[in-house]
Specification:
- The chain is mostly helical.
- It has a domain of about 40 residues.
- It has two helices and no strands.
- The longest helix is centred in the C-terminal third of the chain and has 38 residues.
- It is rod-shaped and about 125 Å long.
Amino acid sequence: MSEDVLIVSVIFGTMAVVLFPLMRAWGRRIEGRGPTPPALPREAAERLERIERAVESIAVEVERISEGQRFVTRVLADRGEIPKLPPVQH
């Protein structure tokens, strides 16, 4: 009888040691509370900030170019209507 209790306790003890960390990791994964990712180094954060500013300034310049292109297109389209106006009398 004592030998049976010893065997059962060793089996359950081993299962607890092996399965407890696995169940804990699985539970954290389900909750979405995994380990937090490491913070970015200061140099990387500064570099990303510079890249972000550069991309925003490029976007502003591209918008200015497209506005200029729309203006030129409109001027060229209106150019065909000029001969329809009556001549200026002096």
